[in-house]
Model the fold of this input.
Amino acid sequence: MYILHKFLVLFFLFVSIAEARDFFYEIKKASRDGIGKFYLGREISQVMGHRAAGWLERPEREQEERTDLLIESLELEPYHIVADIGAGTGYFTFPISSRVPQGKVLAVDIQSEMLEIIDARRNNAVYGQWSNIQTVLGTVISPNLPDETVDIILMVDSYHEFSNPREMGEAMVRALKPGGRIILVEYRLEDVSIPIKRLHKMSVRQSKKEMAALGLVFIKNKNILPQQHFMVFEKAKH
Done:
């Protein structure tokens, strides 16, 4: 009888957790580039797989996205712990590492193939270079980072692909130190001239709505990049 009771308690706990997760989302017919799962009115886009790694490292990306301005605008301190979530091939991970010599860059991705690319490049570097880079295999609901350890979380063109943005967002907020920041970089949905698929863009209004649901405070949207928003959100200080 005791074993049956314990089983029923665990079963209903599991059902309750599953229902709580489903509460955040709507399931509808998928569009061509979406997965048919909606969060706060936004359809979540399909994920770019590791086979598209070459596109992430395309030579023209520097000018298209002005990555130099993007990194400069992070306002990094030498001791900062930075999490590059959706790191891909490490396009931002490596240049950030030199800006935080006493800190660390955590390259987080859910695709082990992407992290293997970063590890190979780091391991082939000259002695000491990029030694402050650590790869972390995340999941669709967590970046697998310890609580209150990260100063800055950077997401470049990746958040719109998160299949579980609420759970992932809550886990990211837990990983931030009090007063820590999330930098959300996304192609501007408001600009129809930008040649990116609609579901791979986000508006400031939608971004604010989703970050506010996590308890984050909108600080500013820096108008510095040719095609993308550079939105800064902050976790409350204790």
Q: What stands out?
A: The chain has a mean pLDDT of 88. The longest strand covers residues 176-188. The CA atoms of residues 157 and 186 lie 5 Å apart. The chain has eight helices and eleven strands.
